Amino acid sequence: MLDKLISEFDRGLRTLFAPASSARPHPDHDVDEAELSTEDKRHALGLMRVNHCGEVCAQALYQGQALTARDPAAREALRHAAFEEVEHLAWTERRIRELGGRPSLFNPLWYTGSLAIGVTAGLLGDKWNLGFLQETEHQVGAHLDSHLSELPAQDDKSRAIVSQMRDDELKHADMAQQLGAAELPLPVKGMMKLSAKLMTVSSYRL
User: Fold this and answer.
1) What pLDDT is stored for residue 22 in this prediction?
2) Cα separation of 56 and 91, whole Å?
3) Taking the model in full, what pTM does it have?
């Protein structure tokens, strides 16, 4: 267990402070940069910062869940989801830099909270652990759909990234369902939505 904790601590430091890398090509690698007005660039930057913060939270959440998962299949599913979230980190991080910004200052705070939630979800049992994964991905997918409608129409680079992220998240939700995810109670879903809203508001500008 000590080795696991040290490994997770190291992974957390790398998530927060080291550049992420992607095994797959960035979704926007063959998309030309568009001319954006100052306001459109500011808005696209805010949305991509929110998405990056969400991926930081997802990385912490799945690490915490994998740490306490009992079933090897559930643990592997969580680690696979976490691996793709690292790629999402790389994609959104680079896009933030291209738009002239930086990641959210609140990332360490949200990472810590999400890790604690993930550990707690895992301790409740694998079916609830997977249920938390499934509901998280459904909410993230809806969130990314809203960003696709909000992004500046000509910002095809950001749109390509968000579209691929959404597709990946929905695959994670399907995977959790196939592994026996339990349906979370409505109050829990509501609390998850509230937490996501607070993260969105705090990270859009800062």
Assistant:
1) 83
2) 12
3) 0.86
Check if the beta carbon of residue 136 is closer than 8 Å to that of residue 58. yes
CA distances from 100 to 43, 46, 104, 152, 161 (A): 12, 11, 13, 16, 17
Q: Tokens for 16? A: 């927060």
Annotated binding site: 55, 85, 88, 137, 169, 172
Report residue 17 as tokens. 């402070």
Q: How far, CA to CA in Å, does 205 sit from each of 16, 42, 101, 162, 180? A: 18, 9, 10, 19, 38
What are the pLDDT digits (tens) for 158-187? 999 999 999 988 888 888 888 888 898 999
**Sequence ranges of the binding site for Fe cation:** 55, 85, 88, 137, 169, 172
List the end-to-end C-alpha distance of the chain, in Å, as a whole number. 36
